[in-house]
Amino acid sequence: MKTRAEITKDAKRKLNAFWIVPVITVLVVYVLEALIIGMLNDSTLSSIFQVVITTIASVFTTTLFLNIAKNDDFDQVKFSWMKTSWMKVLKCIVYTLLLSLATTLIQYVAIYSGVLLSFVLGICITVIEVYLSFSLLVILDTDAPIIDAAKQSINLVQGNFWNIIVLGLSFIGWFILGILPLGLGLLWVLPYTGITFANYYLELKLYKPMI
Fold first, then answer.
1. Domain with 52 in it
2. According to the model, what pLDDT value does residue 211 have?
3. What local confidence, expressed as pLDDT, does residue 210 receive?
4. Cα-based distances in Å from 104 to 78, 97, 107, 118, 132
């Protein structure tokens, strides 16, 4: 199995080979997302719409990053690589809403708990999010049902929890550098991060039996 360094190096190589499409995609998608969310009012219904809009944006960008991660032959990357079925989009929306509801309920309990319990619940939320971090990739890659996608994600993360944490933390420096030039660097950092995690998902999928 490839090391984290090899996985990130491969992701950087694939991104640098065809950076124009992912960079333009991130710019357009997130500008549109910001404009739409900016027009919404501050209410519970608006919060739900924000989750839906953010998820839809994430589906198309993640689909592109996943296909770039699979691009071992270095074919020309096209905008059509974002294309996915609306059934997958719907599954991702339902999954994200359910996860948001669960974490919101835990956070609500934490507000009325003591400091220690709030800290423990915060850790629980982080652990849950890490174990489910590959769920959307599983849905987009295999079209698995929501429950099965969550199970597959947990299976992939088992034994690799701290590696995923370290991989995520390794991008902090990149995000700081990306923010400095008026945030323009994030147009490259975000695809780099997305392709790296898609790469890691594909690597784990290759070496761990799917349940």
1. 4-207
2. 64
3. 67
4. 37, 10, 5, 13, 16
